[in-house]
Amino acid sequence: MDLEKLLSDRLAPAFAAVAGGPVDPLVRRSPRADFQSDAALALARRLGRPPRDIAAAVLAHAVLDDVGVSAEVSGPGFLNLTVTDRALADLVAGLAGDPRLGVPPTATPQTVVVDYSAPNVAKEMHVGHLRSTVIGDAAVRLLEWLGHRVVRVNHLGDWGTPFGMLIEHLIDLGEAEAAQNLSMGDLDTFYRAARVAFDADEAFQERSRLRVVALQGGDERTRRLWRLLVTQSERYFLTVYDLLDVTLSAADFRGESAYNDLLAGVVDDLDRLGLLLPSGGAECVFPPGFTGRDGEPLPLIVRKSDGGYGYPATDLAALRQRVGELGATRLLYVVGLPQRQHFAMVFAVAEAAGWLCPPARAEHLGFGSILGADGRMLRSRAGESVKLVGLLEEAVARATDLARSRNPDLDAGTAEEIGRAVGIGAIKYADLSVDRTKDYVLDWERMLALDGNTAPYLQYAYARIRSVLRRAGTAVRPDAPIVVAQPAERALAVELLGFAAVVGELEQSLEFHQLAGYLHRLATVFNAFYERCPVLRATDELRESRLLLAELTARTLRQGLRLLGIRTVERM
Ligand code: ARG
User: Fold this and answer.
1) 184-213: per-residue pLDDT in tens?
2) What is the CA radius of gyration of the chain?
3) Of 375, 361, 292, which is closest to residue 330 (Cα–Cα)?
C-alpha cells in the first residue's frame, strides 16, 4: 500500500468536512515528521480563518489511529503525520511478500503505440536518436510492466528524395562494395560521398531525379536497390540496439515507406472534409492556432508542389493507422523538441479530421540536446556529429577499465560483463536522470562516478547488498517479522513504501528522472541504514529483519533500474 495515498485518502474526507467541498490534502514527505499536509494554509486563506484552527478542525475529523498514524498541528498550520513503527513494519511486510513491490498492474489496459528511435536509412544514428531510443525503451518497459499492450514502432526514415541520389551512388560504387560499407556501419561516409557526387555533377543530379521517379513508380530494379540500402542499414541499426541493450527488434521497423499507399487517401479525405487549401502550389491544411512570426496562419503541407507527399502526410497516415487499425488509445512520439511544432500541427489536423478523438490521444515526448563539455551541441573534433556507436564503445571501454582497476583479479569475461552493464547503464542513466526537456552535458567523469546520482552508484549499491546477502550464508526468509525501530530503519521503510507512488505517477508523466531521483534516494537511505544498523553482526530476529530489508531494497533497485533499461550485476 502506498503510504502517501493512504494518508491522503484518510485526510481528504476530514478536509472536505471542514471546507464543505473537496480539497487535495497535499501530503508529502516531511523533514519534521514522516509526512506532512500543507493544505490547511490555503484553505484557511479561502475561509478567512486562522490556519492553525483549520488544521485542528481537520484533525478532529480525521480517522487515523486505526492505520497507526498520529498527527499534530505544527508551525503556521501544517499537519505533521507520524506512522507508528508497528504500522510501518506491517506495510513493509506486505511489500516483501509482493513480487510486484506494491505496484499493481493497471486496471484499464490500453493499446499504446510508442514511436521511437527512428533513424534514417544510409545515415549514421546521432545522439538525438540515442535519446529517443533510450527514453522510448524506458517507456515501453514501464508500460508493459504495468500491463498495457505496447506496440513498438521504429518509424525509419526510408523514403523521400535523397534516395534517388543514394541509389545512384550505390550503382556507381557497385552493389557488393556498397553493401559492405553500409553493414559495417560506415553510413556517413556513404551518405557524404553521395552528396559530394550530387553537388559536383549535373548529370548525377539528373540521374538522381529520374531515379526518384522510378522508385516512386515502383520500378523493379530500383526497388531492389532501395531494399538493399534499407536492409543493410537495418542490419547495422540492430547491432547498435544490441549494444545499447534495448528491446527493439527487426520486427519493429515500420518505415515511412510503409504508409505510401495510404497517402493519397489521407489527402483525398482532408479535401473531402474541406480542410485542404492550395498555397504556393502545394496543398495544405491550416490548423487553427498556428501562426508564423508575422501572425500569418501556418500551413501543414500535405502535398508538395511537385506532387510528392512529405514527412507530415506520412505522419498523418501513420497516426490514422495506429488509431484505426492498431486500436491505439495512447500514441507516444519520442522525438527531439525541434519537432514540437510539427507534431502539434499533425495532432491538430488529425483532430480536425476526426482521426484523433477521445479516448485516443497523442503526446509528443520531446527532449533536449546532448551537449559537449564546451556546452555546445556534441561534435567530434572534426566538427561532425558524433557517431553513436563510438560513444557507446567508449562508455563500455571506460567502464571495463574502471572495473579492472578496482578489482585486478576479475576474469576477462566478468570484467566485460560489468563494463557493458555499467558503461551502457551510465549512458542511459545520464539521459534518464535529468528532466527530459532539458539539454545536458555529456561528462564521462561524472556519469561513470561511483558517487552521485549515477548508474554506477545504484549498481554498486545493488551489488553491495547482494554481497551482504551472499555472506549471510542463509536464505532470506520472505516472511520474517520486520522490525522497524531505529531512525535509519524507519527511513528505509518509508522510502521502500514510496516505490509504488513514484511508478504510479510515471505511468502518465513518463518523467523518468523522478524514478531516477527515487532510486538515488533509496540507495542513499539504504547506505545510511547499513552504516548505522549492523546487518550481518545482528542476531536472531533483528538479523532476519535487516536481511529482509536489504533484500527488499535490492529488489526495488533492480526493478527500478530494469524499468530504465539498466542492468544490475551481482558484483562490481
Ligand atoms: N526520422 C526522423 C528523424 O531522424 C524521426 C522520425 C520521428 N517519428 C515520426 N513519426 N515522425 O528526425
Assistant:
1) 777 888 888 999 999 999 999 999 999 999
2) 28
3) 361
